[in-house]
């Protein structure tokens, strides 16, 4: 078993023991100040070692709970765990974007890496576009690391990010990724042949760039078109999505990558759902966050996390808007793209049922 490097505080403890000690400390104190750089580097080294043998597409089974973007929001991550359970009692799939934007990217990423070390078959981590060097150099993670630990550790992180898988199939009917689908995929063989990109150039090419960057659109776009808003990858319409799912025999695409006011959003007659897990995004958006649950019988539900904000005279309007947004989410709606209180539907052997959407409020 891999041992901690000489010079660590508890010399001779295993990396699993170090990872568990780091988990316990983060959950209690929300900080890594008690750990030295060598200990953090030991965790990064073991995480890379754990991820390296994994293919670019994972195969995982249900039941499973799926996270969208977290973006350095450690408190929100722990609130979700408090609500639904911690590894290894619950199996989790994370769709990427652990870093940038929020102020605790180091703590969020290390907590998830430690869980991956402790429970490699229960915690599954995918790569988002912010786990690419050109993004986390500009949107907060580099500055945070320079302030907390130094840029050398930020560079070491990039080697770990390079080993993250890009997508995951849940059972046989659900495909998950951070971004979206690609015209560069014609069969499952395209995914089996996919290699994890390990340079900034290969991150921006082929199937891999679309899995991290592509967006669905309800504009007049039936097929694929250039994603001019992001200046990278593609947008795709319902026709392109339907054909992609038909070729692969899929019933649902689950992705992250875009803020949703309700924390989740269905499109195209529930063929695709966006899950966004960072409430009150960037400190100026009134969105909820959500995580998605897939039951053993493919029933779908969500846990919705309300953003925390104490009303003051200065922010009263923002707090009122948050309350209005949440009340709208909880109300029954004829729009199939909105969350509704529905009873679970028994699964058909041949296809997924219409998802059962039960937003669950967390007030902590």
CATH class categorisation: Alpha Beta
Rg is 20 Å
User: Which regions have little confidence, pLDDT < 50, spanning 5+ residues?
Assistant: 331-351, 353-357
Oligomeric state: single chain
Order of helices and strands: HHEEHEHEHHHEEHHHEEEHEEEEEHE
Pfam families: Metallophos
Keywords: Hydrolase
Protein name: Serine/threonine-protein phosphatase
EC number: 3.1.3.16
Keyphrases for this structure?
Purple Acid Phosphatase, chain A, domain 2; single chain; 12 helices; 6-stranded mixed β-sheet; 364 residues; alpha/beta; 15 strands
Task: Give an account of the 3D structure.
Strand 8 and strand 9 form a beta hairpin. Helix 2 crosses helix 4. The chain has a six-stranded mixed sheet, with no helix packed on it. Helices cover 33% and strands 15% of the residues. It has 364 residues and is an alpha/beta fold. It is built from twelve helices and 15 strands. It has a single domain, classed as Purple Acid Phosphatase, chain A, domain 2 (4-Layer Sandwich). Keywords: Hydrolase. Its EC number is 3.1.3.16. GO terms for molecular function: protein serine/threonine phosphatase activity. Belongs to the PPP phosphatase family. It holds the Pfam family Metallophos.
């Amino acid at each position: 078993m891999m041992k901690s490097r000489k010079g660590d505080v508890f010399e001779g403890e295993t990396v699993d023991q170090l990872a568990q000690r780091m988990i316990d400390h983060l959950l209690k104190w929300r900080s890594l100040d008690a750990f030295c750089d060598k200990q953090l580097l030991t965790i990064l080294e073991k995480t890379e070692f754990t991820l390296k043998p994994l293919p670019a597409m994972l195969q995982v089974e249900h039941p499973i709970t799926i996270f969208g973007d977290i973006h350095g929001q450690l408190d929100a991550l722990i609130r979700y765990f408090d609500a639904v359970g911690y590894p290894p009692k619950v199996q989790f799939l994370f769709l990427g974007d652990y870093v940038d934007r929020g102020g605790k990217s180091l703590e969020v990423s290390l907590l998830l890496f430690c869980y991956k070390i402790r429970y490699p078959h229960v915690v599954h981590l995918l790569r988002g576009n912010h786990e690419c060097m050109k993004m986390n150099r500009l949107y907060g993670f580099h500055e945070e690391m320079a302030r907390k630990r130094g840029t050398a550790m930020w560079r070491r992180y990039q080697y770990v990010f390079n080993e993250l898988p890009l997508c995951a199939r849940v059972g046989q009917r659900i495909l998950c990724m951070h971004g979206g689908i690609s015209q560069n995929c014609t069969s499952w063989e395209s995914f089996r042949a996919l290699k994890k990109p390990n340079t900034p150039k290969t991150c921006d090419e082929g199937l891999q760039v679309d899995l991290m960057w592509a967006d669905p659109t309800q504009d007049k776009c039936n097929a694929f078109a250039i994603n001019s808003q992001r200046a990278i990858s593609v947008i795709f319409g319902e026709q392109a999505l339907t054909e992609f799912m038909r070729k692969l025999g899929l019933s649902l695409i689950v992705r992250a990558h875009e803020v949703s006011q309700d924390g989740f959003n269905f499109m195209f007659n529930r063929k695709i759902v966006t899950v966004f897990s960072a409430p009150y995004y960037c400190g100026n958006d009134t969105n909820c966050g959500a995580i998605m649950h897939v039951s053993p019988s493919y029933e779908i539900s969500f846990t919705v996390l309300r953003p925390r904000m104490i009303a003051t005279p200065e922010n009263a309007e923002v707090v009122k808007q948050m309350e209005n947004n949440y009340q709208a989410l909880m109300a029954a709606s004829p729009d199939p793209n909105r969350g509704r209180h529905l009873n679970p539907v028994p699964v058909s052997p041949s296809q997924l049922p219409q998802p059962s959407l039960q937003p669950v409020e967390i007030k902590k």
